[in-house]
Amino acid sequence: MRIVILSRNPKLYSTRRLVEAAIKRKHEVFVVDHLKCNIEIEKKSPKIFYKGEYITNIDAIIPRIGASVTFYGTAVIRQFEMMKVFTAVSSQALVRSRDKLSSLQILARAGVGLPKTVFTNYTKDVEHVVDSVGGAPLVLKLLEGTQGLGVVLAETKNAATSVLEAFNGLGARVIAQEFIKEAGGADIRAFVVDGKVVGAMKRQGKEGEFRSNLHRGGNATIIELTDDEERTALKATKAMGLGVAGVDMLQSSKGPLVLEVNSSPGLEGIEVATGKNIAKEIIRYLEIHVE
């Protein structure tokens, strides 16, 4: 196959591993910076122009689109779809996954367990928002935040109302979410490829930190999912329409609760923690569907 990896940096761990896995399985692979693609829209003749030439005869793409460039990255994926190229992550699924509010609504409708969540359009009744998720402590999240940025743990009702009022004053959209104390500052990431969990890790936040993101100094260890956790990860991925996904869950007394379904999950944390070749699984997924 001829495979394009849409990535802004060929030196990133995830991009490098996908290139290595594709070459090892005897495929041609090209790393293309999606922000440098020109999209040519014409009746029945969609084209992509990149670095002085048209991209042609591509069998499949693997999008690695950063949150800050979702709009243009999605447009490039859509153009490849119009050119009848298979994509590991569809343009529609990427858009759904990047809209935190919409994705939570989709997951709730599909019957996926979630922490109780409240979204408001700059209401002045911030105390009611706090009470609606079970009072303090509670978690406040910016809708546009990534990698743990824009996430605040409000330990008292006064702190929560102050933060909500401050966010409202800045015109920032925020969701309030119940705090799952029994999770102990840890979460689980299940890596799903083509409807199967191919690896799972438990991420523990550093001492005094309730966010477990590896970018924020957390650590990861391999974990074997319970049947309930595996079912939840697969149901969430299916609801979002993703072929490749990282499903972040909390272990709670009510069972697994999904925090987020990531459409461009990094490979480094999961491969290091589990010792599994996740990049190879993604390439095999392309092989099956292109054939």
Automatic annotation (TrEMBL):
Keyword Metal-binding belongs to the record: yes
Cofactor(s), names only, from the UniProt record: Mn(2+); Mg(2+)
GO CC annotations on file: cytoplasm
GO BP term, pick one: translation
Record InterPro entries: ATP-grasp, ATP-grasp_RimK-type, ATP_grasp_subdomain_1, Rimk_N, Rp_bS6_RimK/Lys_biosynth_LsyX
MF term (GO), any: metal ion binding
Pfam families for this protein: RimK (PF08443), Rimk_N (PF18030)
Keyword Heme among record annotations: no
Keywords: ATP-binding, Ligase, Magnesium, Manganese, Metal-binding, Nucleotide-binding, Protein biosynthesis
Source organism, top-level taxon: Bacteria
Domain called ATP-grasp: residue spans: 104-287
Protein name: Alpha-L-glutamate ligase
Organism the protein comes from: Polaribacter glomeratus
Organism ancestry: Bacteria, Pseudomonadati, Bacteroidota, Flavobacteriia, Flavobacteriales
